[in-house]
Write a structure and sequence with these properties.
Helix 1 packs across helix 8. It is built from eleven helices and 15 strands. It has a seven-stranded parallel beta sheet, sandwiched between helices. The protein is of the alpha/beta class and 351 residues long. It binds NADP nicotinamide-adenine-dinucleotide phosphate (NAP) and ligand G4F. The site of ligand G4F has 22 residues, from helix 4 and helix 7.
């Protein structure tokens, strides 16, 4: 039987790397788009690339979502059965500094792929769009978001992703392309980028555990997020494309915790005693060590955003039912996984 061919944009990112592993396990031929960069950006997929078992089923192509010709040429050459559009300028905070670039990559980049699929008229191709809970943003007195909730993005990133969400839906309705949105809530892992809040915290606390004298500077500690594990969520990305008809799905755990609660959970796993003092910009956390108080965390307004999504909690009942979504990781297990991996990393840095 002919192997299925998948194309992943954003293969060097957190989700792209886990999805590539999953698809290779499922005997796909996997192609990924990588960007030219002046330093190595393939750290998350090097182990896949050098594995001799993957020699004839894993291929990388230079391209960029801002470059229509590269997108078209790669799709034309590969003729994929499934396309997973995970490539994005995915940092909400950075999108306020680079709004136009974010729109180009995370918004128009999606259109470039869909146009290539339309022109090339590839039979039965399936398209997955990495949509996001950042589409919501405003609670409107509701404490949970599902596929029918009102959108109200709060950042240039959210707006770019809103365009992608709708253009995916428009190409599905207008041209009959199998195109689906996964509206994924925050998902983390040991491969999470180090400027996202969970990984910033696990990197810092594990170094602290090994004796670092640094202080961590954070923004809004009250923001609440619905955090899942990326390994669970990439499986849902694949399942969304295995449905009989294209549809949009919310993927979330249904639980929401604050950044401060996430820190407390990490401290518990690391058996560190933390005490919080002050409020707002004066809030601080100290670590208690043999009755001595050492400054651990300070709030820094540099990390506040011009506009904030204060609260996110997803209702994934549709995914639970249709995709048989049953996450393997609780938040506690996610924290343990990240702490374990970052402790190893911190130890290796000391050598
Ligand atoms: P990530 O780790 O930031 O990865 C983003 C990927 O996009 C990287 O491979 C990056 O390449 C690539 N990329 C950036 N600019 C590009 C460009 N101009 N052309 C081509 N590729 C480009 O993100 P992630 O956490 O894996 O998320 C995957 C997708 O899901 C993203 O679209 C994100 O917006 C969306 N999403 C994420 C979450 C979450 O909580 N993780 C939730 C909902 C939706 P480099 O490695 O070269 O930078
Ligand atoms: O970890 P974050 O940067 O993730 P955010 O903004 O929720 O976005 C992530 O999840 C989205 C899905 O909802 C994705 F679409 C998006 O691509 C990305 O993966 O921030 C989480 C919260 C925010 O409220 C932020 O203000 O943590 C708060 N925070 C507090 N201090 C901080 C910091 N965030 C960062 N990055 N750095 C801080 O120092």
């Amino acid at each position: 039987m002919k192997k299925k061919v998948a194309l992943i944009t954003g293969i060097t990112g957190q989700d792209g790397s886990y999805l590539a592993e999953l698809l290779l396990k499922k005997k796909y031929v996997v192609h990924g788009v990588i960007r030219k960069s002046s330093s190595f950006n393939t750290g998350r997929i090097d182990h896949i690339y050098i594995d001799p078992h993957n020699k004839t089923n894993f291929y990388l192509h230079y391209g960029d979502l801002t470059d229509s010709n590269s997108v078209y040429n790669i799709i034309n050459k590969i003729r994929p059965d499934e396309v997973y559009n995970l490539g994005a300028q995915s940092h909400v905070g950075v999108s306020f500094d680079n709004p136009e670039y974010t729109a180009e990559v995370s918004g128009i980049g999606t259109l470039r792929i869909l146009e290539a699929l339309r022109f090339l008229n590839i039979k039965k191709v399936k398209f997955y769009q990495a949509s996001t809970s950042e589409l919501f943003g405003e609670t409107y007195n509701k404490n949970v978001f599902d596929e029918n909730s009102k959108f109200h993005p709060k950042s240039p990133y959210g707006v770019a992703k809103l365009y992608s969400y709708w253009i995916t839906s428009v190409y599905r309705e207008s041209y009959g392309i199998f195109a689906s949105n996964g509206i994924l809530f925050n998902h983390e892992s040991p491969r999470r980028g180090e400027t996202f809040v969970t990984r910033k915290i696990t990197r810092f606390l594990t170094r602290k555990k090994l004796g670092s004298k640094d202080v961590l500077y954070l923004g809004n500690l009250n923001a609440k997020r619905d955090w899942g594990h990326a390994i669970d969520y990439v499986e849902m990305q694949w399942r969304i494309l295995q449905q009989k008809k294209p549809e949009d799905f919310v993927v979330a755990t249904g639980n929401s915790y604050s950044v401060r609660q996430f820190i407390d959970m990490c401290a518990k796993v690391l058996k560190m005693k933390i005490i919080w003092t002050g409020k707002g910009l004066n809030e601080k956390a100290y670590i208690l060590n043999k009755n001595k108080k050492e400054l651990l965390i300070k709030v820094d307004k540099r990390y506040f955003r011009p506009n904030e999504v204060h609260y996110l909690r997803g209702d994934a009942r549709k995914a639970f039912k249709k995709l048989r979504f049953k996450p393997k990781f609780t938040l506690r297990k996610l924290v343990e996984d990240m702490i374990k991996s970052d402790l190893e990393l911190a130890k290796s840095e000391l050598k």
